[in-house]
């Protein structure tokens, strides 16, 4: 079972549990952009929540598709987003809904996770995490019962499962 990130450290006078606060340094950090893959991956949950609530620009999908060397249509389909809505919001320079923005950040976080793994390996020269992820998502995997990871990227649970699979690949616990 995963360890909870929220722990009770004592009780205040009102009987309410005291929950540890976010470190001041984390609040002072510069905002992360949805296409800053490593930044999104390394950001804490509160920063990612702030990013979603402040609105992920629909135009981030254009930049993400370019960096992943896939069509915007393919990316939008993989994330289960309505193409017409995304195009309209992009034309009008509007933000995606929180649900839509969360899906985009999930993809960004996955690319950042792979980028971090490769950097930690000590051999990041010439490796393009975004295009590698785009290709890898299309491969049927035995660990997913023959499904392609792309088929799972339209839900938070699916994105978590895919991210866990990537982490297991790094630790050689891939099955």
Order of helices and strands: HHHHHHHHH
Amount of beta strand:
under 5%
Question: Number of helical segments?
Answer: 9
Strand count, sense and closure of the main sheet?
A: none
Chart the SSEs and their pairings.
Layout: H1 24-28, H2 37-42, H3 45-54, H4 60-68, H5 72-78, H6 83-91, H7 98-121, H8 129-136, H9 156-170
Task: Describe the protein.
Helix 3 packs across helix 7, helix 4 packs across helix 5 and helix 7 packs parallel to helix 9 (156-170). This protein has 9 helices and no strands. The chain has helices at 24-28, 37-42, 45-54, 60-68, 72-78, 83-91, 98-121, 129-136, 156-170. The model is unreliable at 1-28 (pLDDT under 50). The protein has 175 residues and is an all-alpha fold.
List keywords for this structure.
mainly alpha; globular; disordered N terminus; 175 residues; 0% strand; 53% helix
Short précis:
The chain has 175 residues and is mostly helical. It has helices at 24-28, 37-42, 45-54, 60-68, 72-78, 83-91, 98-121, 129-136, 156-170. Helix content is 53%, strand content 0%.
């Amino acid at each position: 079972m995963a360890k909870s990130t929220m722990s009770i450290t004592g009780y205040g006078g009102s009987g309410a549990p005291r929950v540890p606060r976010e470190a001041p340094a984390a609040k002072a950090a510069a905002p992360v952009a949805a296409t800053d893959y490593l930044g999104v991956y390394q950001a804490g949950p509160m920063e990612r929540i702030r990013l979603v609530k402040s609105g992920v620009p629909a135009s981030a999908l254009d930049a993400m598709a370019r960096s992943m060397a896939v069509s915007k249509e393919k990316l939008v389909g993989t994330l289960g987003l309505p193409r017409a809505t995304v195009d309209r919001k992009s034309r009008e320079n509007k933000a995606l809904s929180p649900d839509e923005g969360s899906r985009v950040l999930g993809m960004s976080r996955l690319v950042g996770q792979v980028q971090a793994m490769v950097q930690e390996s000590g051999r990041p020269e010439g490796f393009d995490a975004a295009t590698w992820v785009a290709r890898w998502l299309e491969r049927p995997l035995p660990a997913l019962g023959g499904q392609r990871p792309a088929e799972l990227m339209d839900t938070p649970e699916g994105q978590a499962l895919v991210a866990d699979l990537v982490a297991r690949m790094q630790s050689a616990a891939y099955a």
